Structures are given as structure tokens and as C-alpha cells.
Amino acid sequence: MNSPNSGATQQYQQIGNQTGVMNADAHRLTQMLFESALKRIALAKGQMQRKDVAGKGENISKAISVVEALRGSLDMDKGEELAANLDALYLYISQQLLKANIANDEAMLEEVSELLRTVKSGWDGIREEALQFMGAVPSP
């Protein structure tokens, strides 16, 4: 049941999300993509448990779109080996998400969540270094 303020709450959240995106640097935008993919996978897992086929499919589809956005953001000319490895990993994750949806397999969702968390952890760890590189934070 929706509360009378649920529409206003959703609008507020959308404005907050839009503001966060508009104020984010490239590094933060990538973090936000990881967060979005992980959130969608968690939602899909819960929907899988509740046998909400439509919701599960929608969230897995959105997670695949986010992973494909991460894949599309790779600069294949810089750090060729790393970019190629991430490209292969993101492709694998997208394929596993599709298979998990078809097979209704929570373990596959957990596997790709763990892979994404691992990459996100590395990405999170380089934030300050990346900001310094972009000149946003003065070097010590």
C-alpha cells in the first residue's frame, strides 16, 4: 500500500539521484554504476525468492544494461591488458545474469554480485589517487 507521500518521496529520490549524477566526477559516476548494478541484482534476488517473475526480469535487465555501460566505458587504448580483462569479465557477468534469469538461479546472482563487489572494491580504493591524477586534490 502506498502512503500519500510516496509520489513525493519518489520525486525527491529522483531529484537527489539526478543531482548526484550532475555533481559527480567520472570516477564517482563509475562507482554509481557499480552501486546500481549491485542494487538491481539484490532486488532481483529478492524477487526471485518471492517468485515475482516480472520484477526479477526487469531488474536483471537493468543490471545487464548497467554492466554493459561499464563495459562501454572502457578505454581499450589505455591499459590494453586491463581493459581487455575487464571487457571479458563484464561480458561474462552479463551472460551469467541472463542465464540466472532464465534458470531462476540465485547462486549465479550471488556469483556475479561477488565479482562486481571485487572490482568495485578496487575502484573505490583508487578514488583519492584518481582525483589527484585529475588535479582535483592537491598532492601532499
In words, what does this structure look like?
- The protein is elongated.
- It has helices spanning 6-22, 26-49, 53-72, 80-103, 106-125, 127-133.
- The model is unreliable at 1-13 (pLDDT under 50).
- The chain has one domain (26-133): Four Helix Bundle (Hemerythrin (Met), subunit A), CATH 1.20.120.
- It is mostly helical and 140 residues long.
- The protein starts with 5 loop residues before the first helix and ends in a 7-residue tail after the last helix.
- Helices cover 80% and strands 0% of the residues.
- The protein has six helices and no strands.
How would you sum up this structure in a few lines?
80% of the residues lie in helices and 0% in strands.
Number of domains: 1
Provide the low-confidence segments as ranges: 1-13
SSE arrangement, N to C? HHHHHH
How many helices? The count is: 6
